[in-house]
Amino acid sequence: MFPPAGGRAILYLEFKPCDQLPWMSFKLLINKETIMDKRNFLIMITMILSLIGCSTTSKLIVGNQSPKKFEKEIKKKIDVNYLLYLPENYEQETKNYPLMLFLHGAGERGDDLQKVAIHGPTKLIKQGKEFPFIIVSPQCPENQWWDIESLDLLLKDISRQYRVDENRVYLTGLSMGGYGTWAMAMEYPHRFAAIAPICGGGNPVTAEKIKHLPTWVFHGAKDDVVPLKNSQDMVDALKEAGGDVKFTIYPEAQHDSWTETYNNPELYEWFLSHSKNSF
Q1: Domain 81-278: which CATH number of 3.50.30.80, 3.90.230.10, 3.40.50.1820, 3.20.20.370
Q2: Distance CA 105, CA 179 (A)
Q3: Could you tell me the pTM of the whole model?
């Protein structure tokens, strides 16, 4: 019952705030100095209940295991800087084009996109070479590693904006980008038509996931940054799974096994010879 304005009321509450505490009760004396209307009365009651804190947590079980579940909805902002190359006749033609996703190495991380053009296809484009691909070359932020989910969302956005042949999407990368190539192929094994990881590595245990995916691996025999064994283990795992894999080892190359690889026209011809339609 709400007290009349200027009146006086006594409120008696009895409840159990949590499973571990005994029943508690208290009296609240309300007079005309502390409450004058219905609104203030409700505010007072709310404050008291919040202070007492009746817990909705289930009873603790000690000395044994109990099933629990954590659930939380989060929002994630995707922000990727990248270089985009469109073939020379893109605007004059209406056909769909194959796409190559190029992942750089650790040394090109940061916020200066020109660093992405230091090695690989981006370097060749800067020197004037033309390609028959749409080439997407994202930049990984400083002190981070490739965010595979962000790369996938980037590719989806590119496909919405440009005329991409979804059956001929290729993936390649060097060093840290080689690792990223293996990781992204494992995460999205049916997204690409072929991959070419250079001086990288992955998890051989999961190699069977991409046994259907044409793969050309490159590494320098004298690499003292990323051991040759990292690529060899992946190649062996793919062969054991019955995979379609090629392995090129440069006998005298150290960590830079990418210059000779990306300068070789056969790599791009090999890419174009594969389509998901042929799987």
Answers
A1: 3.40.50.1820
A2: 9
A3: 0.76
